[in-house]
Amino acid sequence: MGLAQNKSQKRLKVINNKGSKEDQDQTQTTTSSLQNDVSTSSLHNDVEKSETNLSEATTVTLCDLTDLSEIDALPSFEKSTLKFKQNDIVSAFDEINSFSGGRMNAKITNALIYMITVDHLPLSFTERKGFQYFKKVALPLYKAPGRSTITRQVDEKYTVLSSKIKDKFKLVDNFCLTTDAWTDSLNNRSFLGLTVHYLQETELKSITIGVFLLENKHTYDYIGTALLHCCHEWNISKDKITAVITDNAGNMVKAVHEFFGSKKHLPCFVHTTNLIVTNSLKDVNNIISSVKAIVTFFKTSHDAAQKLRTYQIQNGKTEGSCLKLIQDISTRWNSTYYMLKRFLELAPLISIILFDNQNIKMIDQENIAILKELILVLAPFEAMTVEMSGQNYVTSSKVIPIVHCLKLTLDKVEVSTNVVKQILNKLKEEVARFYSDNSSVEKNNLLSVSSILDPRFKRIHFENPLADTAAVARIKVLIDEHKKNDSVSVSPRNYDKNQEKLTDMTSTGLNLWAVHDKLSIKQNEGVCNNSGIPSELKNYLNQTLSSRTEDPIKFWTSVIKNRLLAEAQVLTPAAKVCSILIDEMAIKVYKQN
Predict the structure, then answer these.
(1) pLDDT tens digit string along 63-106?
(2) DSSP H helical segments within 527-563, as ranges?
């Protein structure tokens, strides 16, 4: 850009006075058009377009001149015919190149603020050497704001956008909250994140409305007060909150029970699954620790890591497709699953590399056999964790069906090693303890009602007839309540052919949803006893089950006049995924900056 500006300072606009008035008008029009387009077109296009238009005009010639004496070399013009205007082409190019002030300056600054916030960059990003060099090359005349200005503008942008979101929230009928606390170990400070979920037309939306510094002791009263204050600040009334999802920590659970109501609390499904698996793996902790030690060795030894890459390339892998060992994370059980699975994939090569190593030894074949069967047992849990961690599709209505499918799938798993047999039995016991006994998911009104109101599942996965009956009774009450305000009627199914296809979950060796698919076929071939049920609900329950890949939200949008009933129950997420992601992003930013 600097080169173009230097060239423009050497250029003169030469006008032939002998040209026609029409030609002169064309020249003026071209120059005027160039100036008018400066603020709305990109710099590069404006420069090229301006030079092209001016060169095509019969009375205008752009010449690169080293000095005024070169004018004599032009055969078509005489010095006496040249007229120099104060508002020449140099001014036009200077206007194109200038970014100080105006709409273009504001547009670039807005894009810069967007990049900083979306990519989680530090507010001092514009003061860093790399960005300064990039700006000098790409936008030499643009004056990037410093940290203090960026901070102020981010706050101003937040004020404007949050005001718009608050106005939008006034029109929303039902909300679900997910919250989680986390600790910044570097600075020994704790934070509380809060994410709100709601339905906009047929799309699930999630917005993180707060990350608060916890300055006092993390009592349930302190946490509950902070959550309520945030909801009030964002125009979210307690009456519109259908559920609050937290982990199983006692202070978080009690905070929701005391401040929002026990019936609105849901334990995070993924966190509960994490507890089930970690409690069941104690008998193989020594083997897992040995694998972790090997992974750590390869992560810290350049020579070992290089040999692993070399052997893979010799076996046909490309440099870009070579696999690396994965280290697990203590708070994510499935990271242990991924670590063990990748270790088994690379075990033959690892064994060769560690053969002569005196510091660390490869695990023996007996433990390798145990790990292979352990992966088979854990595969359904990994598939379930991935399925229930979604943010953009309904998950609460899947809890009862997926737990039922998990139980039946585990019954089909066959293993030969005694250690893994014990782990399999322990997993079944933990699943029953967390999901089927006193804390049965079928007894939870939110989960049971949402499952029945999901046209893909309805009642087929209920193991407890009393829980099924209670859920139907609850729906009858909800229908009566909504009838007072508006009519609720269910019409024949009319699905959109372009409905979004949801996750088709499969797992290694076992398809967890195969159980559901068989039950669905059987259900659609039979007749259910729906006597004593209101006609609207009976009409819905008597319809055949929807395909598992269809979207229940779009179903209710197309068949129900007043969708508030289904919306309030089905939109609830089963896991606090958004809050967890906020935690991880915050930790990442802290570590980087």
Answers:
(1) 333 333 333 434 444 444 444 445 555 555 555 555 555 678 88
(2) 535-542, 552-559
Amino acid 11: pLDDT: 38
Tell whether 467 and 489 lie within a shared domain: yes
Amino acid at 469: T
The neighbour count for residue 571, using CB atoms within 10 Å, is 24
Structural domain contains residue 513: yes
Same domain, 108 and 85: no
pLDDT at 569 exceeding the cut of 90:
no
**299 in a domain, yes or no?**
yes
Tally the domains of the chain: 5
Out of 344, 363, 382, pick the residue that ends a domain. 363
Q: Which residue has the tokens 């696999």?
A: 323
Do 447 and 585 lie in one domain? The reply is no
Question: pLDDT digit string (tens) for 270-283?
Answer: 888 999 999 999 99
Contacts of 497 (CB under 8 A, 6+ apart): none
DSSP 239: G
Please write the tens of the pLDDT for every residue from 291-308: 999 999 999 999 999 999
- Residue 312: which domain range? 279-363
Q: Are strands 265-267 and 241-246 parallel, antiparallel or unpaired?
A: parallel
pLDDT at 29 over 70: no
pLDDT at 337 exceeding the cut of 90: yes
The terminus-to-terminus CA distance of the chain in angstroms comes to 33
Question: CA 263 to CA 91: how far, in whole Å?
Answer: 70
Residues 6+ apart with CB under 8 A from 247: 180, 267, 268, 271, 576
Do 399 and 532 lie in one domain? The reply is yes
- Structural domain ending residue among the three candidates 363, 385, 406: 363
Q: Which long-range contacts (CB under 8 A, 24 or more apart) does 83-90 make?
A: 83/15, 83/17, 84/12, 84/13, 85/13, 88/12, 88/13, 89/8, 89/11, 89/12, 89/13, 89/31, 89/54, 89/62, 90/8, 90/9, 90/11
Residue 171 CB contacts under 8 Å (≥ 6 apart), including other chains: none
DSSP 3-state assignment of 480? helix
If asked whether residues 248 and 288 sit together in one domain, one would say no
> How many CA atoms lie less than 13 Å away from 306 in the CB half-sphere?
3
Q: How far apart are CA 259 and CA 257, in angstroms?
A: 6
Two structure tokens written together for 383? 């598939």
Is the residue at 387 inside a domain?
Answer: no
Greatest mean pLDDT range, 66-75, 411-420, 500-509, 538-547: 411-420
User: Within this chain, do residues 403 and 455 fall inside the same structural domain, yes or no?
Assistant: yes
Question: Residue 377 domain-assigned?
Answer: no
Check whether residue 494 and residue 468 sit in a common domain.
yes
Q: Which range is least confidently modeled, 144-153, 186-195, 489-498? A: 489-498
Note the pLDDT of residue 304.
92
